[in-house]
Amino acid sequence: METNPIPILTIQTTPFDDQRPGTNGLRKKTAVFESKKNYLQNYIQSLLSSIDLRDRQGCTMVVGSDGRYFSRAATEVIVQMAAANGIGRLVIGHNGILSTPAVSCIIRKIKAIGGIILTASHSPGGPGGDFGIKFNVANGGPSPDTVMERIHQVSRTLEEYAICLDLHIDLSCLGRHDFDLENKFKPFRVEIVDSVEIYLNMLRGIFDFGAIKSLLTGPKQLKIRIDAMNGVMGPYVRRILCDELGAPANSAVNCVPLEDFGGQHPNPNPAFAAPLVDSMKGGEFGFGAAFDADGDRYMIMGENGFFVSPSDSLAVMAANLSCIPYFSQRGIRGFARSMPTSTAIDRVAKAMKVALYETPTGWRFFGNLMDSGRCSFCGEESFGTGSDHIRDKDGLWSVLVWLSILAVRKQGVEEIVRDHWAKMGRNYFCRFDYEGVDSRAAYYLMRDLEAVITDKAFTTQKFSVGNNIYSVEKADNFEYIDPVDGSVSRKQGLRIIFTDSSRIIFRLSGSGAGTGATVRIYAESYERDPERHNRETQVVLGPLIAIALKISNIHERTGHRGPNVITCDQSSTAHQGPKSLSSLF
């Protein structure tokens, strides 16, 4: 306990006009947070002030980071400001490290009012990289729109912030640390906790660890390769997969969290996790996985480099949840997916006779469904999957689901996926990202395209491309009515659905720290015939892509010659795109 009370200071400031949080909180270039005077302090004050004073006084909050550059400095500011704003207790991961799933887990375990996560997800780190601040609320999930709007409104008129500049904490020192503050009757407490233990205990209650350990250590040991991409997941992979479940230590690579992620893009797709892809192509390993910087996204690969797309992973996991004790004991109440995610899981839901909810992009939309008991399992096409065990997507949990399925079914990854296609059909799927688009150009592109597809005449349109004819069945700007509270989310993406279940979707992304906007185009085609499940993605989706380019004129209107990133169910490539698909542009 400090002998002299620490003073609480009030610092004058001026508001910033660019602190509206997006889908993943507030994300900017690191230099903005580091160099703009009071930029970080303003946003933290806006976040804290958005919480009702009666709820804030004496409450508990969780703080964690993915270990990226500027996280330690930002964590100290958060501690100083939380103390000055009446927070009673902060729970922080050892060395400031906590994965996003672990933050959600701890919030729920200790009934905290919320948690602050310092991450820019899969974006690069370092002084020239990105930095972000997410706020998860009391259910453990991302902030709903109402909370983000409150934060933004406070930020627009903020004139001062409160801080205890003399309060300092050693993030490497586990245990409780109490601080006496001026004019406070109770001390302010900081608890530095083991980054993995609480989360690990939760997983022990979900999975059959014995079965997974037998898979990884038995006479027919499955050799695995796990790439933590020098993000937050290194300590979790080492502790859980290696120490707890018996995988050899050399199964895990890039497990030391680095401020710049080793100069790499911590993005778990085949383009940025190329070393893992190369390792898997060698045939030595039967299972591979990679995680993003904060541990909520993941990628699955099978022997010989067989890539499992996020949408296929979601559907296969849904169809095999009975392999997990958590679900076999509790039952399955429903599935949910974001609107752009492929409809593969819809077919699983129909076969299992459970409800399927289609939501806008953003994990926060799943929270109400899970809190009300409507949804047990959910996911997005952007490599995120989770369930009602927490309220955020969970990369390592997803990997353990896959390992559980392998242990029960005694089949390889590719065999399981192909068996799924044979039973349910295959959904060919691809996403095209146009990044750094002029914001006005992106706005008018989407506005004009909406006018085209919502015209009554469009629903009678037929598009002929080669030997393919596509008849429009429905076209709209997706609108979501929350079945729990009746709230309405409008303009969530332009959809064109054809009579053969093919889809084209256009959406403006709500995340990212770079300049300009990101326009995403999604193409999907369903194939029931098993004889046609080995076709090239280019052949299947080429006609739909041609239609999308024709009706949007995206290249002419944005000045882009093609997408910056292509992510599809066979491969992912940054900038130039897969050879089989880049020729379409």
The CATH class of the largest domain turns out to be Alpha Beta
Tell me the structural class: alpha+beta
CATH architecture label name of the largest domain: 3-Layer(aba) Sandwich
Strand content: 25-35%
Mean pLDDT: 95
CATH topology of the largest domain: Alpha-D-Glucose-1,6-Bisphosphate, Chain A, domain 3
Output the radius of gyration: 24 Å
N-C termini distance: 65 Å
Number of strands: 28
Write out the CATH superfamily name of the largest domain: Alpha-D-Glucose-1,6-Bisphosphate, subunit A, domain 3
What low-confidence regions span 5 or more consecutive residues with pLDDT below 50? 571-579
Subcellular location: Cytoplasm
Domain Alpha-D-phosphohexomutase alpha/beta/alpha: 19-160, 199-305, 328-423
Keywords: Cytoplasm, Phosphoprotein
Family: Belongs to the phosphohexose mutase family.
Task: Annotate the secondary structure layout.
Layout lengths: L8 E4 L13 E4 H6 L3 H11 L3 H4 L3 E6 L5 H14 L4 E9 L2 H11 L3 E5 L11 E8 L7 H13 L2 E4 L11 E5 L8 E6 L3 H8 L4 H9 L6 E4 L6 H11 L7 E2 L20 H8 L5 E5 L6 E5 L3 E3 L1 H10 L5 H6 L3 E5 L5 H9 L2 E5 L4 H8 L5 E4 L3 E4 L7 H15 L3 H12 L1 E12 L1 H15 L8 E4 L2 E10 L2 E2 L6 E2 L4 E5 L4 E6 L8 E11 L9 H16 L1 H5 L6 E4 L3 E3 L4 H4 L3
Parallel strand pairs: 3-4, 3-5, 4-9, 10-11, 10-12, 15-16, 15-17
Antiparallel strand pairs: 1-7, 2-6, 5-6, 8-9, 12-13, 13-14, 17-18, 19-26, 19-27, 20-21, 21-24, 22-23, 24-25, 25-26, 27-28
Helix pairs in contact: 2-4, 2-6, 8-15, 11-13
